[in-house]
Amino acid sequence: LPANQSAFVRYTERPIEGFPMKRLNCNINKRKIEFLRRNWTPVIKEPERERCYRHKINERMRREKQRQSYLALHSVLLPGTKSDKNSIIQMAVKEVHELQRHKEELERRKHELEAILAARESKEVGGAKIRFKVANPSSGIDSMVEVLKCLRSMGSKTRAIQSKFSAQELAAVMEIESQIGAAEVENAVQGTLFEVERKFRFHFP
């Protein structure tokens, strides 16, 4: 035998009788792919199925919440409003504009009334004048002191006094600030002067 000759014979693939080698390789690859598909496909599809399910549930809840909101809005609109979404929105916008207009009108009337009341209070408080006279006064000074006390007890403030004292007559014009009408204040002052004279005449006949 030659020096480098071996007793082993190199293995050579031989096709199985009736099965070509190329067809056999294709079948093996196909089985591998099917095996991988059976093992990995469920792992991929399950999360996708869950995600789609959650999306459907969330969308259903969103639509239900939106429907309830439209129903609540429809319940406060004018009777006869159609129940479709476009009609509800259009009527709601119209109502909002109308309410805004009413609000502006009420604010304008409020400012007008406040101005009228302020002018009326200023007229009543700032320009009231009272006049009184006492013939043959027993004490002109005491009479004026009692008149000032009377005004203070009625919540009136004296702004100016013009008076004339004599033995024959006490005459005065007083400018006051008062929430009470001038006629009512004058009546109270006249009553006070009458009481002063009565007391003096009683004690000093």
Automatic annotation (TrEMBL):
GO terms for molecular function: protein dimerization activity. Residues 89-123 form a coiled coil. Keywords: Coiled coil, Nucleus, Transcription, Transcription regulation. Pfam families: HLH. InterPro entries: bHLH92/bHLH041-like, bHLH95_bHLH, bHLH_dom, HLH_DNA-bd_sf. The keyword Transcription regulation applies. One of its GO terms (cellular component) is nucleus. Residues 50-99 form the BHLH domain. Gene3D superfamilies: Helix-loop-helix DNA-binding domain. It is found in: Nucleus. PROSITE patterns: BHLH (PS50888). PANTHER family: TRANSCRIPTION FACTOR BHLH041-RELATED-RELATED (PTHR46665), TRANSCRIPTION FACTOR BHLH92 (PTHR46665:SF6). This is BHLH domain-containing protein.
